[in-house]
Design brief:
about 35% strand; globular; 7 strands; 60s Ribosomal Protein L30, Chain: A; alpha+beta; 4 helices
Length: about 200
C-alpha cells in the first residue's frame, strides 16, 4: 500500500574510497532513503491526538524505507551502522516532525531487518526546502563503538515544502576507514568509571 501523502522517494548513496592520504579498503558505503510526505496535520491548527495518523502512516513508512534501504545495501547483515531523521517544513510543529519517527511502529521495522540491539540515533529539525538533512549513525549492536559514529548528509532541493515532512533512514556498511580514537569504554576505565554504570548511579 502506498501512502496518499507520499510525493516522492529520494535515494542518496556515496562510496568513500579514500580518507585522508590512505585508501579505504573496503570502500565505505553511506546510504539514505527519504520519503517526502504531506504533513497530515498541516492546516488543522492544534491537533491534540496525533495517534490516528501515526498508527496509519508510521508503519507504512517504516516498512517502505527499510525495504528499500536493505535492498540497496544488499542485505540487513551488510548494514553495520544505522540511524533515522525527520525534517519538517516551516509550517510544521516540532511535534509533527517527531511524530512519525519516534514510535516503535516506525523504527522496529529497521531494527528487526538488521538484527540491531542499540537504539536508533536521530535528528528532528524544521527547515526550508533544500535544507541539509543529517542522519546520525551508530553501530547497530554497540552504542559505544566510536568507529561507527558517522553522519549521512544530503539535501532535497524542493523539499520539505512548508506543509511537508521528510522522513529518512540512513546506513553505513562499516566504520570510519581509519578510525583510531578508541571506544568510550577505554575512556570510562581511564577515568575510573564503572563501564556498566558510567553515570555512577
Amino acid at each position: 500500500m502506498i501512502l496518499p501523502e507520499l510525493r516522492k522517494l529520494v535515494i542518496y548513496e556515496e562510496e568513500v574510497h579514500r580518507d585522508g592520504d590512505r585508501a579505504a579498503d573496503p570502500a565505505l558505503r553511506l546510504i539514505a532513503v527519504a520519503a517526502v510526505v504531506r504533513n497530515p496535520w498541516a492546516g488543522r491548527g492544534h491537533v491534540e491526538d496525533l495517534g490516528p495518523e501515526i498508527a496509519r502512516m508510521a508503519p507504512l513508512l517504516g516498512k517502505l524505507l527499510t525495504d528499500r534501504l536493505v535492498a540497496i545495501a544488499g542485505s540487513g547483515e551488510a548494514i553495520q551502522a544505522y540511524g533515522k531523521a525527520a525534517m519538517g517544513g516551516t509550517g510544521a510543529e516540532m511535534e509533527h516532525v517527531s511524530a512519525l519517527i519516534h514510535t516503535l511502529r516506525f523504527g522496529n521495522f529497521y531494527r528487526e531487518a538488521v538484527g540491531a540491539r542499540t537504539y536508533l540515533g536521530f535528528t528532528t529539525v524544521r527547515g526550508a526546502a533544500g535544507g541539509q538533512i543529517q542522519v546520525p549513525l551508530m553501530d547497530k549492536h554497540d552504542a559505544g563503538r566510536r568507529s561507527h559514529y558517522l553522519t549521512v548528509q544530503f539535501t532535497i532541493p524542493d523539499a520539505p515544502a512548508p506543509d511537508e515532512l521528510v522522513v529518512a533512514l540512513g546506513a553505513a556498511t562499516g566504520g570510519r576507514p581509519h578510525h583510531r580514537i578508541g571506544d568510550r569504554y577505554a575512556d570510562l576505565a581511564a577515568m575510573g568509571h564503572d563501564v556498566g554504570n558510567p553515570a555512577g548511579v
